[in-house]
Amino acid sequence: MRLDVNFAALDRLRQRMEAPLQNWQANIGLGRVKDIIYEPHEREIENLEELDVGPGDTIIREGRRVFLYIREFYVNAETFEEACSDPEKLRKFHIVWCKTLHEMKSAGRFERYVTSDRVDEPFGVALRTNSGEWACGDTEIYVCRWCLQHSNWQNYRAAPAKQRLSLVTHFSRRRFLETNHVKFADVPSRSDDSTPALGRVKDWSEISRKYRHSKQFRCEDCGVDCSKKPSLLDTHHNNGVLSDNRYANLRALCKICHSLKHRGWYKVSASDEKAIEALRQAQRSPLADQNP
Length: 292
Hints:
By secondary structure, the chain is α+β, with helices and mostly antiparallel strands. The protein is built from ten helices and eleven strands.
């Protein structure tokens, strides 16, 4: 089906104004119109006050159900396809206020989550692979086991291990919504169209350099002075949101201290670790002030 667009009245007005006429065709079908009016699925959470607790500790926004998940994260894989081949290795999405969400809120890292209204479609994610490159796309991810435990979905608590695994891998978001008789989630507040597809902005290197310079290239945790070797000092995001570059959300950390914030994936090379320890030792020495 096509749209018939007639601008005869506009053409008559252009003639009265002695403006030149131009041939124009609206080559837009309904498929293209659908793309134009399409509302994005994922939105960031601007304020915790926007979210409420519904029946069964479900996650409610503006009176309707939403799901939460972390869109950007690191994976131990070489490619996007390899990472997504086993959803068990990916981050999980949340259906209720489980212990993980409470822990993330207490740790000040809740802003990493986005709300989603996807029911039958895969989730949109940005994955950083072993090469350090980011890759974006849609993929299936599994529901959080703590959420199933908390809500006791399909008698999850009493189910044997094999049945529990099946409840995870075959979890239906649509069935969950329909069974609990709640309305479908409204469009949340932040979308993956309105924010960077990848966490870091293009000028991140300059932002990081300026922030570390404002801290005299000193680690804000251990105090080591890295001004002579600035590459040993990183800029860490306190809340884990890589696009949130407010100075209040940044912290200058030597690579050793930074690795303690990201146990399991952030690795410090032996040479960098040795260099930082040498600086720490030299700056603790009483002779340090005498040998600039």
